[in-house]
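protien #1 (seq + structre)
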Amino acid sequence: MMENRQNIQWFPGHMAKTKRKIAESLSLVDAVAEIADARIPASSRNPELAELLGKKPRILVLGKSDLADPGISAQWIAHFKKAGIYALEADCNSGKGLGQFLPGVKRLLEKKLLDYKAKGMTGKKLRVMVVGIQCGQILVYQLHGEGCQGKGGGPPGGDPGQPVVYHR
């Protein structure tokens, strides 16, 4: 009787669609900002992102840091740093901690920025895709005040996986 059973598709359609959009847009961006919950950084991350993003430079934003234990968060930041992942704490609602975001992206893409400068491309905009399950839209709108634009020059945000352009 077990042989007659079909596999059940548990992966929701919107998640499969987002995964496809991320894969399609990845070549259009310089880096990826992954949003995770500072209270549960390991379990709030999508384990499929590592394989999907490959070697694309990534910054990890631990959102909802205002609700997390500061000592534990510091340990997580150290853990990610040791693993070669640039991570920062942020409260996306208030904007606290987001002042580290753009400098972090620039640090992450330092080699690329030097290459652009050597080629005379000093005005080239950095493109960062925001992905994750926590406060992504709020992060994008908070960063809009930091000189960020969405694809096409309008406000950032919109569809999941849509690249967000950050001015340098």
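ok now protien #2
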Amino acid sequence: MRPLVAAVLCFGCIATNRVTLDETAALFHDDLRWGRIPAAETSVDARAREAFQQHHRGWGTQVRVVDLDVDAVRTASSTGMLRVRVTWVGGNDSTDVREREADAMAAESLIPRSIWSRSDAARLRTAAAVESLANELRISTAIVAGRIRRETGNYKILTKHLGQGEVRRHFPDVVWD
């Protein structure tokens, strides 16, 4: 699942001066980021705490916070307000953020977007187009076919170009389940 972006307001984070507000913002950030919702609640103004609890009830279980950025900080006498930008994924999404970043880097280095977007393989998704692009880029047809399968979500197409069984052939002493 792709991360989604949502806005969360922290009303009246208790602070007596700008330094304390910055410290409170940093603690609030860390508590939300690492799923310490009860600790984060202590930074929320009592008047908004119940709404905050209701809204964030599933965080840490149904929702996993991936990243947080403090967008804005406003102060007024002894209180302040933070606007926090939250990137999150569903709690059942086991894909690690670093893994997704690595996948994106690998995809770009093997088949640059500028080439992919104009290729017949991306548009036609045929065996001939897969072979043509693989030859042009001097990469395996399995990389091109795999990208098409991943982007379309159709893992039944282009199976002949994946080289199934090729790895096992190089490890004859291994007993495969």
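The CA atoms of residues 45 and 52 lie 10 Å apart.
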